[in-house]
Amino acid sequence: MIPISESITPSRWQTFTAAPHRVMFFGGALQVVAAMLWWLADLAMRYGVGRPVEWAVAPSAAHAYLMAYGMFPFFMFGFLMTTFPRWMAGRVIPARRYVPAFMLLLLGAVLFYPGLVGSKTLLIVSVMLTLCGWAIAWYAMLRVLLEATHQDKRHPIVALLALALGWCGAVSYLIWLLGDRAMWLNLALQAGIWLFLLPVFITVGHRMIPFFTSGHCQVRRPDWPWWVILGCSAGHGLLQLFGASAWLWLCDAPLAASALYTSYAWNLRRSLEVPMLAVLHAGIAWLGVAALLFTAQSLVLLISHGEHMLFGLAPLHALTVGCASTLLLGMATRVTLGHAGLSIYGSKSAWLLFAGFQAVVLLRILADMLPAQWGYWLYLAAAAAWLACFLPWVITYLPIYLRPRADGNPG
Fold first, then answer.
1. 3-class secondary structure, 210
2. 320, 279, 109: which is closest to 197 by C-alpha?
3. Spatial separation of the C-alpha atoms in residues 138 and 164, rounded to whole Å
4. 204 and 86 in contact (C-beta within 8 Å)?
């Protein structure tokens, strides 16, 4: 006869699939390490360490896909599938919806790497599996939105719309793989950043960061900067898509002003006293810096009639590594600890990890600003530093997704 205490003990699989953030963050953590290991290896081989490999697609195109569509969606779905019901007092998303989505996303991520070695067909299958998993996860969140009776659904609607546009961007990447027409790759890249990543991160930030901060200091929560950033983000993407780089300042200048004002209104200075808050506010601050760099670069292009590219890809990496990755690190850590029944106020090691990641951002930006002979080594240093920061995070937090909550609560 099986003792009662053993009969009700959940299996490792039941624990792992008890909440959407567990499975999605687990997959995202593995993908962060895999994507950066591949990128570091590619950079090393291109810059003389070993023999270069002939990939199925250009390394820059693979890197862009992995960052925009292969890594961030795991964390976005893990976070939003957990918070959507809380935002709208809706029904909790059942495992029968998020587990299949996770399995398809994970399989798509795994197949992408052998596809890079030389099988474009495998790359196509990988992206198709990712699109299927994405669609299932999106539909599960849509059900929550439609069934909830909460009056304020602005943030969920915007987040769902951005996720839908991100799915369309991944479809564009698939079309490029099938036909090799550059316009579809360009559409995938611009949609991935300006219609998907930035809108999702600023929407989540606008909904959550003032709420987190209000427990420690007084904050204002104006809506207008959020709408301006969303509009300017879409405008930047469209201008970039049509090759109007010299006119990006029309969108980037108001975006920078709105982001910087947001940091001021959300009390950036006081947030630095609390490490778990500081990393979230740092992500928003990097958005302001990135927009200023984009503005300056666009004005130089306008004045020089397109002859001078002032900062290279530095503004883009200030946005993707500085803003998006910093926010990812902060939000994932907070959710992981909070939903594991652990204290959300990180240890000194966690704070050092957050601080170290800001050095990664600086390295990556400097790599584009300094002369080429320095930039090559800084590219490698930035990728290695990224891994040096994320590997300890993965080693620390990955086991949490496989253990029951410390407080004994479900989830």
1. helix
2. 320
3. 8
4. no
DSSP-assigned states of every residue in 98-142: HHHHHHHHHHHHHHHHHHHTT-HHHHHHHHHHHHHHHHHHHHHHH
Look up the CATH number of the domain holding residue 377.
Answer: 1.20.210.10
Dist. CA 41–CA 219, nearest whole Å = 44
Give the pLDDT confidence score for residue 8 in this predicted structure: 64
> What length does the chain have?
411
Q: Please give the structure tokens belonging to residue 399.
A: 């086991």
Distance between CA atoms of residues 173 and 112, nearest Å = 13
Place of tokens 């980037």: 252
Tell me, what's the pLDDT at 411? 76
Per the structure, the count of domains in the chain is: 1
Give the closest residue to 229 by CA, choosing from 152, 284, 282, 190.
284
Residue 320 lies in a domain: yes
Number of helical (H) and strand (E) elements in the chain, helices listed first: 18, 0
Q: Does a structural domain hold residue 139?
A: yes
pLDDT value of residue 270: 83
Is there a contact between 11 and 21 (Cβ–Cβ < 8 Å)?
no
Residue 251 counted as domain residue: yes
DSSP 342: S
Within a domain: residue 2? no
Q: How far is CA 60 from CA 57, 116, 302, 390, in A?
A: 8, 12, 26, 21
Q: Tell me the backbone φ, ψ of residue 65, rounded to 5 degrees.
A: -65, -45
pLDDT in the model for residue 52: 77
Angle between helices 224-241 and 249-265 (to 10 degrees): 150
pLDDT < 50: residue spans in the chain: 1-7
Q: Is 296 exposed, middle or buried (0-12, 13-18, 19+ CB in 10 A)?
A: middle
Amino acid found at 1: M
Round to whole Å and give the CA distance between 257 and 250. Answer: 12
Output the furthest CA–CA distance in the chain (Å, rounded): 83
269: Cβ–Cβ under 8 A, 6 or more apart, which residues?
none
Domain span holding position 33? 16-402
pLDDT of residue 10: 78
Instruction: Report the Cα–Cα distance between both ends of the chain, in Å, rounded.
Output: 28
| Residues near 187 by beta carbon (within 8 Å), at least 6 away in sequence | 169, 172, 241
Say which DSSP state 244 is in: -
- pLDDT reported for residue 180: 87
DSSP assigned state of 69: I
